[in-house]
Design goal:
six-stranded mixed beta sheet; 8 strands; two-stranded antiparallel sheet; alpha/beta; 258 residues
Length: 258
């Protein structure tokens, strides 16, 4: 397993550096939350692995959060329980300790995907629910015309769907999750119809793939988008997306039963 970062981050992104304003831009979207809730079924106890600041933790369930990054644990709101300092690959729980397990926007951070997913399967009696992106679809987004290395990074980091379902075993389903045009969870595709939001450095920082591109190139990408928005070029090509209520992009939900 790779060494953990200064603030405990266990993946390839240092959330001690980039995670400070994360919760201000990555607010759970209620429509995505409803899809996750349906996937969890009648579970009463849930472990949330790679829980971050607590997005998509239902207040009606007994949730045990696991998060290795100190800076992300510190951003958890007061109404949520404190997170356990641990990694997906070594969950400090007994077999079948929970009704269900979930993870959102986290599997691409894990140093050992198979070990982490098998741990989730080990501690959950029922469904394991994974919100992630299909790497085969990441580059289909218009942002690829402006920030290709950012989306190349995303496509490289997100695990293949077959690798996730294979590690979980059992009966797995894969569902495309529509991204609402006013999505409150600020990942890149959340701004498909609001491109101006990606001119905000904080919004970009809340999408970890941007941190893998050097600052000068990030500025070039942003300036290209800024020019095309000012000239109307972006709207001539993609303006219809501003009125499109939802995008079926790369966001998916994987649900596996034993």
């Amino acid at each position: 397993m790779s060494e953990r970062g200064v603030d405990g981050s266990a993946g390839d992104a240092d959330y001690g550096s980039i995670g400070a304003g994360y919760s201000g831009y990555r607010q759970p979207d209620p429509r995505i939350a409803e899809i996750i809730s349906r996937a969890l079924g009648d579970a009463a106890t849930v472990v949330n692995v790679g829980a971050g600041a607590g997005s998509y933790e239902s207040p009606t369930l007994q949730v045990t959060a696991v998060e290795p990054s100190e800076s992300m644990r510190a951003q958890r709101p007061a109404h949520l329980s404190s997170a356990v300092d641990a990694t997906a690959e070594r969950l400090p729980f007994a077999d079948d300790a929970f009704d269900a397990a979930m993870t959102t926007f986290s599997v691409h951070q894990w140093s050992d995907l198979t070990a982490g997913l098998r741990e989730m399967r080990r501690v959950a009696r029922g469904p394991v629910v994974v919100l992630t992106c299909d790497p085969d679809l990441v580059r289909d987004f218009w942002l690829y015309d402006y920030a290709p290395l950012v989306l190349d990074t995303e496509a490289r980091r997100y695990p293949a769907v077959a690798d996730i379902t294979g590690a979980l075993g059992g009966q797995a389903t894969v569902e495309v999750v529509p991204v609402p045009v006013d999505c409150t969870d600020g990942f890149n595709e959340a701004y498909y119809g609001r491109p101006e939001r990606l001119l905000d450095p904080g919004a970009r920082q809340a999408c970890s793939a941007w941190s893998f591109v050097d600052a000068e190139l990030r500025e070039q990408y942003t300036e290209h988008l800024r020019r095309d928005l000012a000239s109307g070029a972006w709207d001539r090509r993609h303006g219809a997306l501003r009125e499109q209520p939802a995008l079926n992009g790369s966001l998916i939900l994987i649900r596996a039963l034993p």
